[in-house]
Amino acid sequence: MPLLGGTALLAAFWYAERRARDPLLPPRFLLNQRRALALTAIALSACATAMTFVVLSLHLQQARNWSPLQTSAVLVPFAVALISSGRAARTAHRPVRARAVTAAGLGTGAAGLTLLAFTGLDVRTSYAYGLLPGLVLLPAGTTASFAGAAGLATEGVPQQQTGLAGGVLNTAVELGPTVLFAVLLTLGSDAWSLAATGAALAVVALLNHRTK
What we know:
single chain, globular, 212 residues
């Protein structure tokens, strides 16, 4: 029921905005292909990060019987890669460079999620082989894609719509770990959810690369 109610409210909002003389969120603003792909990349990147933390935290403690302290310790490389990649991606301010950074980041994140899905959740694999590569590739990729996509989502926005652009961007950040996260977790096992998220990142990376 909450999902149906939320969907109905969104449909009503979209209908009202299309009929309004001075809409709060002009439909044309979201129909820009480059901006739509950038916002999708942001939402998926946020979703992938949140899903990895939740799935791995539960897996390591329930399937491998690791303590909360051990689980926190093995996620340290994730945090280090997240911070390092964020600093390196600050140069993605030009449109062409931002598209390349976004596509490369999404592809790297997809590779990291695929590794986690097919090796990281196998209790028979070691940490160094099964978990560590994905825990480094995923945050490095998603942080880069977020930095590049943030620039694309706000590029060319008129001055009077800068607040709107920032609000839409922040909404995409919140939709990832909530709506997309909930939808992707319903696909089956944790491995399938991670793999599906990785596939979504790869598709958006390809579309972003082809968009001019």
